[in-house]
């Protein structure tokens, strides 16, 4: 063995082994493609070309991955040569066979490096993907040109549009890799494969020189036409997905070099897109959000078993999340009939997976073996963590916590799933408030990613750390929230929903408002969401708050009139919309519009038209203004916590980065000017947040407050 590049500090190291130049990337933790890696790869290929002893080149990644993609530390910084397309071109143009041995992640630019090699081997641990679309980008180093040649138009384009990963066997079937070899040592497997190729005098095989699966151009074009039409509908205004389609079209129509030039131009256009800024912010915010003071200050308590109080929709969803994480769960209900119903709710989720072929019956049986139903609090005396998920009534919840206080072991974490209620008051019902925390799951709890971790005044730091560790095990996105009515998400929701109600009373129909919100990028509008959640839930909250409502504040009663008729949305067949015969998508209801008209007349409101733009200006201004108040009060640690809450739990369009990032991109001065304009008609509701005024006066934005917690 002869060392070629000798610096031990080098992130790319080369050794010569029996005529094979082994190029190993050492850039922990995931061998990201930073400038030093790119420079090292260029130098290694140049060395291989110049050395007559080198017969072939093997590229491997050290540690747990091949190359997991770009180095995120370089995002937003001036580019450093060489650019990755040059590196990939240099690898592919090597006159000696180049083999990539892939284990672990080969994602984004990492997969593009592998596609530039002449042969590809994968170990069973390999995960291959081109997920740039998730950051508002497209593969910019030949991925859109090489992948279709290897996989065909449909498979390659779907890989890029979805951002999903392929395992080794799927990649082999798709044509991305040439062989899958059992084992966990990429060097040994790679060297054996290279020697086999040399023994049979396998030629240099640049992907760019082959038509591959693009040879039947008519069939490829037909596939791409279908994908373009589907993407135009599904992308809903997103920038990069249709650019990916355009690049694959270039792979079909243009010589490889021209296709590469086109791809680069589209990549640079994506870089300049405001959608990219929003998606990058979302990417980083989701990584920052778990960095909270308590998690740094304390060690989590061990969690080996969980109890859930309540077997309704929410309790069942929480139970499924815990079972999926491998935890044993005991569900407590008030009687045998309720327990049977709770178990049925849990089994229904797994039965659906079995029916779809996504879970084996044996796996369902093994999962359900960790589930226990009981009506006795004595049966959860050894649980490490208990999550209460009963009816949203503070006296009911206090009664549950008094039972938990008596029956749970010392040091057990006692959590409430309340959406709005005062957790300090719930904690005070126990003799151990230091163990009480809020875990606000979103429905359906086994699907929705957001978990608001609500931190009451007297809770111990290690309980907060335990909650964040649990969120990680449950694969949730955790956001730390302070105690107030509604915490972060529902508190802000209540305000922008008021803005929507005012718009409705002033002249916009609920259907126009929903359409404007969908046009902004939400999957549903606020009145559709009301119907989905159940109008009776909001009605109960409004009645609870009625005694404390400011008598001078404007109050729209349209939703109350609808609820008084027993129209609670999808579950009753009508709400703001009609749902004939159990339909999931509602139809506008003329009787609802008549109720709206009658309420306007009763209040003496002369309706006026609203454009979609004005609807969204008011909707977003209300959201941002309340978000600023939530940050100023410390209910959210940072603006990014508000952003992640709305991205993960409320359907906020990811490409806009979250409401606070959206406001930064609009300009806080413009948002404040809107609020002041709207305040001329309703100064009580449209009162600018002091923090928003301060930031504008200082020429700063919300992002300036996103310092590590």
Question: In words, what does this structure look like?
Answer:
- The protein has 709 residues and is an alpha/beta fold.
- The protein folds into 3 domains: 2-258, Alpha-Beta Complex (2-enoyl-CoA Hydratase, Chain A, domain 1), CATH 3.90.226.10; 303-484, Rossmann fold (3-Layer(aba) Sandwich); 490-705, N-(1-d-carboxylethyl)-l-norvaline Dehydrogenase, domain 2.
- Helices cover 49% and strands 12% of the residues.
- The chain has 29 helices and 20 strands.
- It has an 8-stranded mixed beta sheet with strand order 13-12-11-14-15-16-17-18, sandwiched between helices.
- Strand 11 (306-309), helix 13 (313-324) and strand 12 (329-332) form a beta-alpha-beta unit.
- Helix 11 crosses helix 26 and helix 25 (612-632) packs across helix 28 (668-679).
- The radius of gyration is 29 Å and the shape is globular.
- The model has no long low-confidence stretch (mean pLDDT 95).
Tell me roughly what share of residues is in helical segments: 40-55%
Output the radius of gyration: 29 Å
Point out poorly predicted stretches: none
CATH topology of the largest domain: 2-enoyl-CoA Hydratase, Chain A, domain 1
Number of domains: 3
Could you describe the largest sheet, including whether it forms a barrel?
Answer: 8 strands, mixed
> What's the total number of strands?
20
What gap, in angstroms, lies between the N and C termini? 49 Å
Which strand order do you get reading across the main beta sheet?
Answer: 13-12-11-14-15-16-17-18
Structural class: alpha/beta
Residues in β-strands, percent: 5-15%
CATH superfamily of the largest domain: 2-enoyl-CoA Hydratase, Chain A, domain 1
CATH C-level of the largest domain: Alpha Beta
């Amino acid at each position: 063995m002869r060392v070629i590049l000798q610096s031990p500090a080098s992130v790319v190291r080369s050794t010569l082994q029996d005529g094979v130049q082994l190029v190993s990337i050492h850039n922990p933790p995931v061998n990201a493609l930073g400038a030093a890696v790119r420079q090292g790869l260029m130098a290694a290929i140049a060395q291989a070309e110049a050395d007559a002893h080198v017969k072939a080149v093997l590229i491997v990644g050290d540690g747990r991955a091949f190359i997991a993609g770009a180095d995120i530390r370089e995002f937003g910084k001036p580019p450093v040569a060489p650019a990755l397309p040059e590196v990939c071109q240099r690898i592919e143009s090597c006159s000696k066979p180049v083999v990539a041995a892939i284990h672990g992640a080969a994602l984004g630019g990492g997969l593009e490096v592998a596609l530039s090699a002449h042969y590809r081997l994968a170990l069973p641990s390999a995960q291959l993907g081109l997920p740039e679309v998730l950051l508002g980008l497209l593969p910019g180093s030949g991925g859109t040109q090489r992948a279709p040649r290897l996989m065909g138009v449909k498979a390659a384009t779907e890989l890029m549009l979805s951002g999903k990963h392929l395992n080794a066997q799927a990649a082999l079937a798709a044509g991305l890799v040439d062989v899958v070899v059992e084992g966990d040592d990429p060097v040994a497997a790679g060297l054996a494969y290279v020697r086999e190729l040399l023994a049979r005098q396998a030629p240099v095989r640049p992907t760019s020189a082959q038509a591959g699966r693009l040879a039947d151009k008519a069939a490829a074009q037909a596939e791409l036409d279908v994908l373009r039409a589907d993407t135009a509908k599904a992308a809903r205004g997103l920038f990069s997905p249709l650019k990916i389609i355009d690049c694959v079209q270039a792979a079909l129509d243009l010589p490889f070099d021209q296709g590469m030039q086109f791809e680069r131009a589209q990549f640079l256009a994506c870089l300049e897109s405001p959608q990219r800024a929003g998606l990058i912010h979302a990417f980083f915010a989701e990584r920052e959000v778990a960095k909270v003071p308590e998690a740094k200050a304390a060690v989590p308590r061990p969690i080996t078993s969980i109890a859930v109080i309540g077997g309704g929709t929410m309790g069942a969803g929480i139970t499924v999340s815990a079972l999926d994480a491998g935890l044993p769960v005991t569900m407590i209900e008030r009687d045998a009939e309720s327990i049977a119903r709770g178990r049925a709710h849990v089994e229904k989720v797994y039965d659906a997976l079995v029916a779809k072929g996504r879970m084996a019956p044996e796996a369902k049986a093994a999962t359900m073996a960790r589930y226990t139903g009981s009506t006795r609090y004595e049966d959860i005396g050894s649980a490490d963590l208990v999550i209460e998920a009963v009816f949203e009534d503070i006296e009911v919840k206090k009664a549950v916590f008094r039972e938990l206080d008596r029956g749970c072991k010392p040091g057990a974490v006692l959590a409430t799933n309340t959406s709005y209620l005062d957790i300090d008051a719930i904690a005070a019902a126990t003799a151990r408030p230091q163990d009480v925390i809020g875990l606000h799951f979103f429905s359906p709890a086994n699907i929705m990613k957001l978990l608001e971790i609500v931190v009451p005044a007297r809770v111990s730091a290690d309980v907060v750390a335990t909650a964040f560790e649990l969120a990680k095990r449950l694969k949730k996105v955790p956001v730390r929230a302070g105690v107030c009515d509604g915490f972060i998400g529902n508190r802000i929701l209540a305000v922008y929903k008021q803005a929507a109600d005012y718009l409705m009373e002033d002249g916009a129909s609920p259907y126009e408002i929903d359409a404007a919100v969908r046009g902004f990028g939400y999957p549903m509008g606020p009145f559709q969401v009301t119907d989905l959640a159940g109008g009776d839930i909001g009605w109960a909250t409004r009645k609870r708050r009625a005694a404390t409502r400011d008598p001078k504040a404007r109050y729209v009663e349209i939703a109350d009139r609808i609820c008084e008729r027993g129209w609670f949305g999808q579950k009753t067949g009508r709400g703001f919309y009609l749902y004939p015969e159990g339909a999931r998508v509602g139809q506008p209801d003329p009787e609802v519009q008549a109720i709206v008209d009658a309420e306007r007349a009763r209040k003496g409101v002369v309706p006026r038209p609203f454009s979609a733009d004005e609807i969204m200006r008011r909707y977003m201004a209300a959201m941002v203004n309340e978000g600023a108040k939530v940050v100023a009060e410390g209910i959210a640690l940072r603006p990014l916590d508000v952003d992640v809450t709305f991205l993960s739990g409320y359907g906020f369009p990811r490409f806009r980065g979250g409401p606070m990032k959206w406001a930064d991109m609009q300009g806080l001065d413009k948002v404040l000017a809107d609020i002041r304009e709207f305040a001329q008609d309703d100064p009580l509701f449209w009162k600018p947040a002091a923090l928003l005024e301060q930031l504008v006066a200082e020429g700063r934005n919300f992002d300036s407050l996103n310092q590590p917690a």
